[in-house]
Design a protein that fits this description.
Layout (H helix, E strand, L loop, with lengths): L2 H10 L4 E7 L5 E7 L4 H12 L7 E9 L24 E6 L16 E6 L12 H17 L6 H16 L6 H4 L12 H12 L6 H12 L8 E6 L5 E7 L2 E6 L2 E7 L3 E7 L2 E6 L8 E6 L3 H22 L2
Parallel strand pairs: 1-5
Antiparallel strand pairs: 1-2, 3-4, 3-5, 6-7, 7-8, 8-9, 10-11, 11-12
């Protein structure tokens, strides 16, 4: 190979160093110096080594993607009155998982090298986790989900769950415990006083529980919530009715107006594909029946592709657990 060709190839793949800022589950952040052309695994390994994460398969790195509405091609001969012109929709933010086997430079736009370390695969039964640090990280992720509204639950259940957390962190309730709830705690500091009062009442009932027992009680209750570990994606069905497509290690669930209307477990799904904005799944038929397809439309082709990729990852995760 000539030296001119080698030089040209080097110019096509410059070794650009970038600072990647990663936010951890407890709110702390760390900056890592990474080659932009490295695969995502390079950054993920650095993050896990720094924070001493050993069970790395459960977690991943998220980054923010800004999507603008896709332009529709109109008939050049069609004349639309000015009064009927629609205002362009605002740019929307979405979280995508960093693909560990692909170069980061092909996934991240310049100047946007910010990531979140997060739980990607929720254990079906988190009480069976044996690694103490992994279990603590799962608790942090679930508390974040509760606080952000991604994991909805009742007022009483939220107070009960947080009461187990303060029992694990502070021990038995004493008169000074209530005043400590809002100090040095990124979760409790954002709750209303009424909820903190209810947390204190539940906290009093946990007298004698060890850190491990309180943490296990938290996980045992949270795994029973309907949307535990479910990743929701906004879509529309064939009748243009808004729905949410939920994905987890068990399969795909469709929600309408907060009610579950369809549930497809992984063994029932023969295939899932995306084409442009559409996401489709092929359902295994019953005896003497033909396979059927379910079809939904998302707002952007990148969202359809992202949903397809998440389903692929979760299905692989399901198969892994089924063979354990």
């Amino acid at each position: 190979m000539s030296s001119h060709l080698v030089h040209a190839m080097d110019n096509n793949h410059p070794s650009e160093r970038v600072n990647c800022t990663v936010q951890f589950l407890d709110g702390d952040s760390k900056t890592f110096d990474i080659n932009a052309n490295d695969v995502g695994q390079a950054l993920y390994n650095s993050v896990c080594n720094h924070f001493k994460v050993t069970e790395t398969d459960y977690f991943g790195l998220k980054y923010t993607v800004l999507l603008s509405p896709e332009k529709k091609l109109s008939n050049v001969f069609e004349c639309v009155p000015l009064s009927q012109h629609k205002k362009p929709n605002a740019i929307t933010e979405h979280k995508f998982w960093l693909q560990l086997n692909k170069p980061m430079s092909s996934q991240i736009k310049r100047g946007n090298w910010k990531f979140e370390f997060a739980l990607k695969f929720y254990p079906p039964d988190p009480t069976k986790l044996t690694e103490t640090f992994t279990r603590s990280l799962v608790v942090l992720q679930i508390r974040t989900d509760l606080l952000d509204g991604r994991l909805p639950c009742s007022f009483g259940m939220l107070a009960l769950l947080e009461s187990y957390c303060v029992q694990a962190e502070l021990g038995d309730y004493v008169r000074e415990s209530r005043s400590k709830y809002e100090h040095n705690n990124i979760f409790l500091a954002k709750h209303e006083p009424k909820l903190l009062d209810q947390i204190a009442e539940f906290h009093k009932e946990h007298k004698g529980q060890t850190h491990h027992e309180a943490q296990m009680a938290f996980l045992d209750n949270v795994k029973k919530l309907a949307l535990y570990g479910v990743d929701l994606h906004k879509a529309r069905d064939l009748h243009k009715v808004p729905v949410n497509i939920g994905v987890n290690c068990n399969g795909i669930t469709v929600y309408k107006d907060n009610f579950r209307i369809h549930r497809f477990v992984w063994p029932k799904i023969l295939r899932f594909v995306y084409k442009q904005k559409h996401f489709c799944i092929k359902i295994r038929p019953k005896e003497k029946e033909n396979p059927t397809w379910q079809n939904w439309k998302l707002d952007h082709f990148k969202l359809a592709k992202n949903l397809w990729r998440i389903c692929s990852d979760q299905h692989t995760y399901f198969r892994y657990f089924s063979f354990l």
